[in-house]
Amino acid sequence: MKYMGVRIEVTPDHSFCPGVDRAIRITKDALMEKGEPTYSVGPLIHNPEVVSRLEMLGLKSFDPAGDYPDLDGADVIIRSHGIDTETEAKLKLRGAVLLDATCPTVKRAQEAARELAESGCEVIVLGSESHPEVRSIVGRAGAPVTVIETSADARRWAQGEGRPPRRVGIVCQTTVPRELLDSVTSIIEASAGRVEVQDTICKAVSRRMEEAVELARGVDLMIVVGGRNSSNTAHLAEICREAGVRTHHVEDSSEIQAEWLNGVESVGVTGGASTPDWQIDETVARLEEIAGD
Ligand code: SF4
Q: What residue ranges do the domains of the chain occupy?
């Protein structure tokens, strides 16, 4: 009984964040009230299993950069990442009934970018250029903005033509780590005349990261549950590894292998912002099953 006595601990925050929870509720209500066709602008959340269950209830998604289905009179959910103004205008033109599930925290980042641009700042959005949330922040700023993803990007920006000095406003993707915001801010501050930072980091995500690192420091193995396409889940796995613990990122409990528990006395479990409770429960049940064999 080599696994006997394995301690399994789950972080307090491990399932849907408030923004994702709200988007799922809005979607389920729409499916109940109106039924098909109900669409989402891109996959509703970055969790393939949850999305496939919603598809079984009648949800369909389409790529806003590709061909649009017939949307006349159809409910169209704007997911928690939000959309840019151009896409919103296109949807309205096609007669879509928009149900706005943009997370209020993302809306705050969109508004912060617009306000900084209106006040005359050169706006920098810190985040991943290809992420839908960043595209929605950029697309609502009402002026050209620069997207920076890393400290190295910030250094390149600072050495670019026309620097310094100028007024710069920084807004960030809600899921960027605070250390990255601090590092980029100090690089920009060293080269710009005046820098205004709008802290748009999501508190729900920061708390989740802190809890994950704290747990990781006290266990032999971490299991991080969530979609592989979820950047915040991937980041959780990364910071657990950086904390020095062996870490596996799984999409669901079926991926957990018995040999991972060889010689392990304690396992920590956490999940990303789009991981449902039941995937965490299944993960714990699978670990208990292996430990009990
Ligand atoms: S992670 Fe934060 S900002 Fe993103 S949807 Fe969830 S609550 Fe909103």
A: 7-15+204-292, 18-102, 105-201
